[in-house]
Amino acid sequence: MTGRVAVITAWSRNREDHLRRQRAFLEGVRAPGAEVVRVEVGLDAEAAPAPPGIVGAHVPPGHHGVRVGAARNEGARIALAQGADALVFLDVDCLPGPTLLTRYLEALRRHPSDLACGPVTYLVSAQRPRSIGELDAMTRPHPARPNPAAGDTRSAASDEYDLFWSLSFAVTAETWRRLDGFDEAYEGYGAEDTDFARRARAAGVGLQWVGGAHAYHQWHPAGAPPWRHLDDILRNGARFARTWGEWPMRGWIDAFVAAGAVEPHGDGFRRVVA
C-alpha cells in the first residue's frame, strides 16, 4: 500500500519521556512509497502544543478518567480529514521497530478489509534503547500472541480476537469507517480494545497477525494486579458484560477477588464493602 499513512498516538504528560523517545525512533522508520503523517492526541486536562511536523489534538479526561478510545477516534478523524489511506495506532509506551510501517502496509495491501496486529516485546526496566538499531537484539515478543515470520501474515481464529491489543495495530481508512472507531463510553483503564475487536469480529472484519511489525513497549512501573485501576476495571468490565454477556480482564478480577477486595455479585462483581 502506498499513499498517506497516519501514525496516531494518544499520550499524557506522565509519559512525556516515552513520547520523546518514540518520536526519535519514528524518524528512523521508513515506509517506501508512503507519506507519513504524525498525529498526537493529548489526554490531560490542559492541552499541550505539538512540535513542528506533528499534528496535535486534545481530548480532556471525562468524569471517570482519561478517554483513550475517544482520543484514538479524534486522531483518526483528523488523519482521515487529511487524506490518510491507512491508520497505524501506536501506544505512547511503544517504540516502533524499523520495519513496523513497511510490514503493516504490506499486510493491509494483501488484506485491506482486515485489522493488522504486529508482535509486541515488553522491555524490562534495564532496557532503555537509545537508537533503533539496538532493538533487534531486544526482540522477545510476548508469548500470549502469535508471532509469524517476518513478512508473513496469519489469519486469527475466531477465539483469538480477545488477544487483540490496541498497543500497536493498523487498519485501512475504509475499514476504520466501517467499524466507526472505539466505543467512547469506556473511560479510564481497560476493555475498550477487547470491545473493539469483538465488534470487528461481529462485523465480519478479519484479524491478521503480522510478522515483522515489531513494537517495543517501554518499561514503566505497574501493579499486578493494577490496584489503582480497580474501579475502572469493575466499571468498564460491567459495561463490556452488558454488551457481550461475559466479563473481560478476568485475570485481574480474579486476583482482586483472591485478595478480598472484590466479590461476586449477581452476574458480575463488586467492591467488598468493609
TrEMBL record:
Gene Ontology MF terms in the entry: glycosyltransferase activity
Provenance organism: Microbacterium invictum
Record Gene3D superfamilies: Spore Coat Polysaccharide Biosynthesis Protein SpsA, Chain A
The family this protein is said to belong to: Belongs to the glycosyltransferase 2 family.
Keyword entries, A-Z: Glycosyltransferase, Transferase
Protein name in the entry: Galactosyltransferase-related protein
Pathway linked to the protein: Cell wall biogenesis; cell wall polysaccharide biosynthesis
Domain Glycosyltransferase 2-like: 65-122
Domain Galactosyltransferase C-terminal per the UniProt entry, residue ranges: 160-212
InterPro entries tied to this protein: Galactosyl_T_C (IPR027791), Glyco_trans_2-like (IPR001173), Nucleotide-diphossugar_trans (IPR029044)
